[in-house]
Amino acid sequence: MTESTASSADTPASDAPSPAVVAPSTATTTPPPTRRTGWAWLALLLALAGGGAWLWYSDHQRAERERAAEIEAAQRIEALASRIEGLRRDVRGHGQRLQQADATNRVLRDELLGMGQRAALLEDQVKKLADANRDGALALRMDEAELLLTLGEQRLRLAADLDGARRAYALAAGVLDGIDSPRALNLRQALAQERAALDALKDDPRRVALRRLDALATALPTADTLPRPQAPAANAPWWDRVLSRLVSVRRSDAPQALSSQDREAGEIAMQLELALARNAIERRDDTALRAALQRADAWLLRLWPASPQRQAARRELQALREIPLALEMPTLGSTLALLRAERGG
């Protein structure tokens, strides 16, 4: 486009009008500057709106994708947790099955061991039955001898019955004498030694102690057997003869019980200690016997003054404390043990 310009200002100013020269224009007219600026601002606003919309859309899409990723991750974690829990249940189930299998194996092993033991016992019984040296009569006599030896030993240990034990051992010797087997020779020899040791026992120490204790209880001094205080001599002063009938002079530190009540209680305690000693002898309890006799000796000193009867009773108590109560027979039961060893072999 071209623009027309006015005439130069170099021409002198005058009041006369000058003719204007107008050049013809061949181009289109341009819009005013304000309209062009408005279109630019509109384009800029549209561009900003589009960019903001695009940014919001992209941010929204990214948030949706992150939310979807979080949901998927949570689902995967939950699926993994459920799968792990399932694996744990499987592991626990396998552990329980292993424990059950182990218990079953132990039961089966115990049953197998029991079957093996029963088979071994059956094998031993078959061997014993197949033994040519073991016939019915011999086995019966050996059983009879074992029964008699057991009876004699138990009667001696439990009841201290020497006569009954001697009779049982004599019957066992008769049974062994009727056996012609060479194996009975050692049994007869051992039984002869045991019978000799049994005959050497004169009496049961427990019965001896009981008899001596009963004799001691019977021979204890009483008020009638105690020595009487000596009367004053005939040539003593008259006041001594008179006062001796009214006053009895004794030591203040004497251990004897003077009053009738004290003496009665002391005699009861003495009898109780003797009963405890008798019970200890029945049980063959040496410790309890010594303790009871020691207490009885103390009561003896308290109840009766010094006299020959008291000295004799104290000597008997000391002898009872030292007497043994157990049967000393080292060979007791040796024949029975040898018989069982022979039968087991």
Automatic annotation (TrEMBL):
Residues 1-34 are annotated as: Disordered. Residues 1-29 have a biased composition (Low complexity). This is Uroporphyrinogen-III C-methyltransferase. The keyword Aminoacyl-tRNA synthetase does not apply. It comes from Lysobacter hankyongensis. Pfam families: HemX. InterPro entries: HemX. The keyword Transmembrane helix applies. The lineage of its organism: Bacteria, Pseudomonadati, Pseudomonadota, Gammaproteobacteria, Lysobacterales. PANTHER family: PROTEIN HEMX. Keywords: Membrane, Transmembrane, Transmembrane helix. The chain crosses the membrane at residues 38-57.
